[in-house]
Amino acid sequence: MRRVLVAAAFILAFASSAMAGPKEEMMAADRAFSDMSVKDGAHAAFLAFMADDVRLFDGDHPPILGKAAAAVYYAGVEKKNPGGEKNSSLAWTPVEAEASMDGSLGWTRGAWTFSGKKGNGSPRRITGYYVTEWRRQADGKYKFVLDIGGTDGP
Predict the structure, then answer these.
(1) What ranges make up the beta strands (E) of the chain?
(2) pLDDT digits (tens, 9 = 90+) for 89-129
(3) Which domains does the chain have, with CATH numbers?
(4) Are the C-beta atoms of 29 and 99 separated by less than 8 Å?
(5) CB of 46 within 8 A of CB of 70?
(6) Which residues of 73-92 are buried (b: 16+ CB within 10 A; e: fewer)?
(7) 3-state secondary structure of 34
(8) Strands of the sheet with 105-117, listed across from one edge
(9) Calpha distance 41→34 (Å, rounded)
(10) CB contact at 8 A, 33 and 49
């Protein structure tokens, strides 16, 4: 009897994790995206998680259209500020997700925090909000196709 209960518990635990819905999968992708940003730098994380036809809107510059354009933009930022990513951190936490009925599209939203240093070496912390649209890829994983963010204010 004990073996049957253990087997049943194992099957239920495996089934519930294997049957995670699209909302949970997008939230997990968003958390993994943030974890990579903290570990490897924001530019590397953005390039790893974005689709080729991405649209980026952050309000600091005209929209960036496409992964190739994002790579060029990030390279320019890094050229102007070598090592800047090593001295800063961008992290975020998704708080909500929604998905289409078939799970092919959806979005997450949450709050982000940038930590770094000002030109004079004093600490700099900026917070904001974002919404990210996700699209399921042929391999079943989600990549983001749209990212919109803003700051919380002065």
Answers:
(1) 50-57, 64-65, 89-99, 105-117, 123-136, 142-151
(2) 999 999 999 999 999 999 999 999 999 988 788 899 999 99
(3) 21-151 (3.10.450.50)
(4) no
(5) yes
(6) ebeeeeeeeeeebeeeebeb
(7) helix
(8) 64-65, 50-57, 142-151, 123-136, 105-117, 89-99
(9) 9
(10) yes
| Side chain identity, residue 39 | K
Contact between residue 51 and residue 137 where contact means Cβ atoms under 8 Å apart: yes
Give the separation between CA 90 and CA 79, rounded to whole angstroms.
Answer: 19
- Would you state the pLDDT for residue 81? 79
Q: Which has the closest alpha carbon to 30: 43, 40, 45, 16?
A: 45
Question: Tell me: the pLDDT tens digits for 8-53?
Answer: 444 444 433 445 799 999 999 999 999 999 999 999 999 999 999 9
* pLDDT over threshold 90, residue 145: yes
Average pLDDT of span 134-153 = 96
Retrieve residue 19's tokens. 């049957």
| Length of the chain (residues) | 154
